[in-house]
Write a structure and sequence with these properties.
There is one protein chain. This protein is mainly alpha-helical and about 425 residues long. It has one domain (about 5-415): Ammonium transporter fold (Orthogonal Bundle), CATH 1.10.3430. The chain is built from 15 helices and two strands. The chain has helices at about 5-30, 40-65, 110-125, 140-160, 165-170, 175-195, 210-230, 240-265, 270-285, 295-310, 315-320, 325-345, 365-395, 400-405, 410-415, and strands spanning about 90, 105. It has a two-stranded antiparallel sheet. The protein starts with a helix and ends in a 7-residue tail after the last helix.
Amino acid sequence: MEIDAGNTAWMLISTALVLFMTPGLAFFYGGMVRSKNVLGMLMQNFFAMGLLAVLWVLVGFSLAFGNFGDGGWIGNFDHFAFDKVGQAAVTLGEGTWMSGGAGLALTIPFVLFAAFQMTFAIITPALITGSTADRLKFKAYAIFIAAWLILVYSPVAHWVFGGGFLAKMGALDFAGGAVVHINAGAAGLAMAILLGKRNGWPKEPMHPHSLPWTLIGTGILWFGWAGFNAGSALAADGIAAQALFNTFTAASAAMLGWLIVEKLKDGKPTTLGAASGAVAGLVAITPCAGFVGGVAPIAIGFITGAVCFLAIQLKFKFGYDDSLDVVGVHLVGGLMGSILLGLFASTEYNPAGANGLFAEGGGLDLLIDQIVASVIVLAFSFIMSLVIGKIIDLAFGLRVDEDEEEQGLDLTQHAEVAYNL
């Protein structure tokens, strides 16, 4: 295959857009924590950009995309330390079951494909920080995300993005509903359970210290999601344009769905609700972005916004302290998007996809595949995250002590303060 200049230009932009989402996530989460933990949250997200990029080059990319299209469980070490990852356009998985045996023919440099996927590998573990806010040791965090990238993210990425067994089964995931959001959300639930509740939660109020920060972070995430979803087309084409449109409209509809239910339940719509609703919609449309069209993204977003608002109440019912609602927004939002894809997908918008239950000629097959894939990813990530977290807890301890938690992570973990007032 020859390199296409237009596709390459778009993918260079998309890669930068997705990388920018991690600082956006830092602002989104950073505004929601108390002021004594702001730098702790920012540091966890920015540190992910350093550690995980290096690990992706050394081993993560190879485990996720080595032996592409094998229909298996894990890649290999063919691309260890970025071996054979060069500037040429390549065909991945030639001779395999994918694309009628033709493999995935890239029209961009292979190194750019690897870089684009690297940005996903960075933000996915970073998402987990919202569930562990205010109480996780930085050392424990660093060890956890390193192990999680290798043992959880890379295998799941292979199952879906790398042509592994879930892709072979027929499950669809355009840009990471299962690989990113269900995966990170399940890990967030496991870590919240392992860490236990923050001191004083839920009796003491723990208000966000700067909602303007959270709204700025939402804007950056919404902007970056254009690269996240439309970039997953790997080309500057009609599918990318459809994915871009779907991404924006789903987020808008989800914001409305969240705020309407919030108004009905609590009496007032909030800025935090607007931000959370938009992100829930962005999460839900992620697996669907290149496979649906028309009013489907509005329906997917609106339904998900309403459901995710209700889902964040579960932590009070079941007593797990998911500090910043990773479970309610990312796990539930990812599940909603992956399952609703089984209803709304249509080959009218992407011939490489499948028809969902509501499409002409569709049936239950895709819906069943989506449910099975979602459950497998959820269970695998939850169990593996529990195991990794427990081992780290036994070896080094996961949680800061009570005095350190009271003083705040900024001082106790980084010897800094965000505000010298």
